Amino acid sequence: MSLGGFDTHAGERVWQEALLRQLDEALTGFVDRMARTEAGRRVTVLVYSEFGRRVRANASDGTDHGTAGPVFVLGHGVTGGCYGEQPSLTDLDDGDLKATMDFRDIFGTVLASVLQGDPDRYLGGYRAQLLPIVTAD
């Protein structure tokens, strides 16, 4: 599923707060409902943005498309915490954040740990570094 509206080039703070609240309430409700059953406790949710935002605000008090978008992994078997380094707000790549973790490592971990798939088969030759983000059942 998708949640649109994050392409906020103007007045970003108000829109981002409302959108993130909507995302939080929907995901919290879904994960809480899934936790009520054995089958639901095997559900893992992966949330990502197809693009990041630039660090510096534009003239309309928003930000433009950038890199290094966020990824959230939720579910009963997910180990909490932050993975990767906090990106620098000053050491930028032409105005963009520098990614500190390759998305394919996260996706590869979910493929291997949740779907029991072989990440090498799906990642086009990229060898994923598997992360301790999902506990084994």
TrEMBL record:
<dbReference type="Pfam" id="PF07394">
    <property type="entry name" value="DUF1501"/>
</dbReference>
<dbReference type="InterPro" id="IPR010869">
    <property type="entry name" value="DUF1501"/>
</dbReference>
<protein>
    <submittedName>
        <fullName>Uncharacterized protein DUF1501</fullName>
    </submittedName>
</protein>
